[in-house]
Amino acid sequence: MHAHHHDHVPPVTDAAGRALGIGIVLNLAFVIIEAVAGILGQSMALLADAAHNLGDVLGLVLAWGANRLTRRLASTQFSYGLGSTTILAALVNGITLALVSLWILWEAGMRMIDPPDVHGLVVIGVALAGVVINTLTAWLLLSGQKDDLNVRGAFLHMAADAAVSVAVAISGVIVLLTGFSRIDPILSIIVSVVILVPAAGLVRRSLQLVLQGVPDEVDLDEVARFLDSQPGVTDRHHLHVWALSTRETALSVHLVMPQPPADSDAFLHELQQDLQHRFRIRHATVQIEHGSRPCPIDD
User: Which of 90, 140, 155, 179 is least crowded, fewest Cβ atoms below 10 Å from its Cβ?
Assistant: First the structure.
């Protein structure tokens, strides 16, 4: 007996899609304002944050595009649909953030050697605007980031940006009160570190999913114990768990049952529902064997 269970889960909600779209518009406008202010105010912190925010805009665009592609139905060429684009978007997003942070480190180092004059009031005003915009965008993405790595990546960027903007505003206050202009590149270095931490985590998790690794949210040992505990199961092999997207997880397994249940369909349906409710595994393929012959498929 060989059963497939493909529970058609609604795509990322329209609310999440709208939140990403609003975030794109808000942050793109802010990038332009911040870049102009950074040039006029001679602030490396503002220019660095503008570059970082531009990377976030691209990340939001990728997340929005992947969100739209998850709505595409399965086809003969893409039998699972295009949900895996959310994984690729998260990976590109993380790599972009890492590259931006390295660029900030380089530029900040140059400014440490030759610090420019910084206009504190300009820096403070633009940075506080960034706090408002980034916090608003993060709030819009708050609900959607809990169950979707793609949306979570965008949320983490916005939340980090809000904190970064606070740091930039602080640098403006210090320059205004003390004239210590090197605080600007010093805080730029701190900005780059703040970016690197979530970027590294995002790259690790998305790369893990690209390589068909088990998602962090799934404990494979616990899944194995659950399957072994099913009535009538004497052995289990070919257990595989992987991500179809940043929202959906798949499983395949062979269960050895010398005495299959009287109602095999009921057993399989209940098992697949339990996998979904306990482990959020929505796509399960379960093959039942009697154990009279060795399984011809090698691990």
Answer: 179
Coil, helix or strand at residue 148: coil
- What's the distance, CA 234 to chain centroid? 39
Separation between Cα atoms, residue 241 and residue 250, nearest integer Å: 6
Residue 12 clears pLDDT 70, i.e. is over it:
no
Residue 220's pLDDT is: 95
> Taking the model in full, what pTM does it have?
0.74
Residue 256 falls in which region: left (phi positive, over 0), alpha (psi -120 to 50) or beta: beta
- To 5 degrees, how large is the angle CA 78–CA 82–CA 84? 115
Nearest to 165 by CA among 57, 48, 280: 48
pLDDT of 168 > 80? The answer is no
5 close to 283: Cβ distance less than 8 angstroms: yes
Q: Which amino acid is at 292?
A: S
d(CA 235, CA 75): 35
- Both structure tokens of 91: 């990976």
User: Tokens 């998305």 correspond to what residue?
Assistant: 206
Lowest-confidence pick of 49-53, 110-114, 168-172: 49-53
Tokens for 183, please give them: 């605080």
Cα distance between residue 73 and residue 26, in whole Å: 31
Nearby residues of 235 by Cβ (< 8 Å), 6 or more positions away? 255, 256, 291
